[in-house]
Write a structure and sequence with these properties.
The structure holds two protein chains of two kinds. Chain A is an all-alpha fold. Chain A has eight helices and no strands. Chain B is mainly α. The two termini of chain B are about 35 Å apart. Classes of the chains: A mainly alpha, B mainly alpha.
Chain lengths: ~180, ~425
């Protein structure tokens, strides 16, 4: 079980890293195309083997990657301690009280996110008709990542509530930074 | 203030108060608002996704995070640090000055105070504690204080966020931050020198002056980064967002090809870590944009502007008042939420009172950065506590002196707008 989970974590992490790298590379490509391919020097030496106008998709592609990084990332690779959290009260109370705060908070988040899946679908369903401006797809597939986010994070918080119920909560100080690796 | 808004704010404070991450507290509170208002809670997702998808400016945030992570992973930070030690380590209070100077130089690259404190901050703290020349609390406190300079000198993630809500020019905001950043560095160095005399901190073995040129040469390509960034933006070559990508790319080239200090494996981890922090920050930003929308639709900024107009306060009194409010809020809220949700409340009043929005923005960002080191909720204090293990109590005991001079610097910036506006005007800002 642990091995399956570890493998799953590695896969989701590498997908996130890949999207980050793709976003970054597309930006560089966009700048390079504008200043190199668009230059008189390039036209004089290489003619029109590459057309700058064929790169109109870069802007929207980076935005799509950013959207996916945010929701994919929060669904799979952002851990509880990576979030900005005000834990003064949470850490101040007795562990027995803290356990109930953790259960209550996790349940509210889980219910809220899961309950919003259908209403969100109602609002976004119309996007199946709307074409993306420059990418060869409709808008719904691009925004669909949000549903994965709602479902996965909702289930994660249900799990968190269950864990707190069964085992209580430790002395977790969940501050927002991860300690950088040496 | 409508009942729906009270429900929204109430649930936000309740959830955040019991330890739910801020991002999710905002999402649930927004749903509570819509539900109480009889609207579909599905609008939250629609607004969130639209907000993220439509803001090109926000793309600078993940890119600056990538740039900062590359700088911290390669040996770029070490080279810059050696240069700083050679340049200012010889003076009384040596490593304290090195600390401030390193922050000044680093701030020209990373754009994030947390990245500065966790990366180069940790290295300097270890150097300061070696041989017991400085107490751990003092080393941690001056590191936290100097890390606040990071987002004042461009590039700067908080200024990108301010530009988003105020429509002020990000280019002029970046320029406007340069002098204030130097002022903050100067007051911190002065405080450090005074403390070093008073408490008799030891002096480091000075690096011989003849070694200075060599150290400078080794650090030079990294020192060029801020220049490249600013030239890109002001030369009209790149948009500020693209400049962030260029900065990250330059850092990547330096670390991998020029300094040969970056393996593929390390690069992979940089991308994973960057995706992780970008995702966490992105969700808070997206949530804050929804709150911003709710607050605007309740017409609160205009009501506030009307009240302030009726009070007939002078611009300077208004600025001082807003800054006191922000300083107090900074003790409890994080900078992203303050900039995206609280600051827009005051923008209509600023316009009505004729306060320059670039001046206001820089002052507000400086204020929010001071909020990062104000106890009890100072993120930088937590970060340094987390990466070094120095107890929070010791850090807080030493941070007051630096807090005092930073607030004095803030007051100076409020009273003398020219400090902020001199450089933007020099480059054509009409304000």
């Amino acid at each position: 079980m642990t091995r399956v989970l570890n493998a799953f974590n590695r896969v989701t992490e590498s997908v996130a890293a890949l999207m980050m790298a793709a976003m970054f590379a597309t930006f560089i490509l966009q700048i390079a195309v504008r200043y190199i391919v668009g230059s008189a020097w390039f036209a004089a030496n290489f003619g029109h083997i590459v057309e700058a106008t064929t790169f109109g998709w870069t802007l929207e592609f980076t935005l799509a990657m950013w959207l996916w990084i945010v929701f994919w990332g929060n669904a799979f690779i952002v851990r509880e301690q990576d979030h900005v959290t005000f834990d003064i009260l949470y850490l101040w109370v007795r562990p027995s009280v803290r356990r109930w705060l953790a259960i209550l908070g996790a349940l509210i988040v889980a219910i809220g996110l899961l309950a919003s899946i259908l209403p969100t679908w109602d609002k976004m369903y119309i996007l199946r008709l709307k074409s993306s401006a420059t990418l060869p797809t409709k808008m719904l597939p691009i925004f669909s990542i949000y549903f994965l986010f709602l479902a996965v994070v909702g289930l994660r918080y249900l799990w968190r509530a269950l864990e707190a119920w069964r085992h209580g909560v430790g002395d977790e100080g969940h501050h927002l930074v991860e300690v950088p690796k040496e | 203030m409508s009942t729906e808004l009270i429900i929204c704010v109430g649930s936000l404070f309740f959830l955040a108060g019991i330890g739910v991450p801020v991002a999710y507290s905002i999402l649930i509170a927004s749903m509570a608002y819509l539900w109480a208002n009889g609207q579909s809670i599905g609008l939250v997702g629609k607004n969130l996704a639209d907000g993220i998808y439509q803001s090109f400016l926000l793309l600078a945030v993940p890119l600056f995070i990538v740039a900062a992570n590359i700088m911290n992973a390669g040996t770029i930070s070490d080279r810059l640090l050696n240069f700083c030690v050679a340049a200012v380590g010889r003076f009384k209070g040596g490593m304290g000055h090195v600390n401030v100077m390193a922050s000044l130089i680093f701030s020209g690259m990373s754009g994030s105070a947390v990245a500065d404190a966790a990366g180069i901050g940790k290295i300097i703290i270890d150097m300061m504690r070696k041989d017991g020349r400085f107490t751990p609390g003092y080393a941690a406190a001056i590191t936290a204080a100097s890390a606040t300079i990071g987002p004042i000198i461009p590039p700067s993630i908080p200024m990108v966020l301010y530009a988003l809500v105020s429509n002020a020019s990000i280019g002029y905001l970046f320029l406007g931050g340069i002098l204030p950043g130097l002022v903050m560095g100067a007051v911190l160095m002065a405080m450090n020198a005074w403390m070093a005399h008073r408490r008799g901190f030891g002096i480091d073995e000075p690096v011989p002056l003849r070694e200075l040129p060599a150290k400078t040469a080794r650090a030079f390509p990294a020192l060029l980064m801020p220049a490249i960034l600013l030239y890109g933006i002001y030369g009209g070559l790149t948009t500020p967002t693209e400049a962030a990508a260029v900065a990250a790319f330059y850092a990547l080239l330096l670390a991998s090809l020029f300094y040969r200090a970056l393996s593929l494996r390390a690069l992979y981890h940089i991308f994973v870590d960057s995706a992780r922090s970008s995702a966490a920050v992105g969700l808070v930003i997206g949530g804050a944009l929804i709150l911003n929308f709710i607050v605007a639709s309740e017409n609160i900024p205009a009501m506030l502007a009307g009240t302030i107009a009726a009070l007939d306060v002078s611009p300077i009194v208004f600025l001082l008042g807003v800054n006191v409010v922000l300083l107090v809020l900074g003790c409890f809220l994080d900078a992203t939420t303050i900039i995206l949700v609280i600051i827009p409340l005051f923008l209509p009043s600023c316009r009505a009172l004729g306060i320059d929005l670039v001046h206001f923005g820089v002052v507000a960002v400086v204020n929010c950065m001071i909020g990062l080191i104000t106890p009890p909720y100072g993120i930088l204090l937590f970060v340094i506590n987390a990466v070094t293990g120095i107890p929070l109590r010791e850090i807080i005991a030493e941070v007051w002196a630096f807090l005092l001079v930073l607030v004095a610097a803030l007051l100076l910036l409020i009273l003398v707008p020219d400090l902020v506006l001199f450089l933007p005007r020099l480059l054509g800002y009409q304000g």
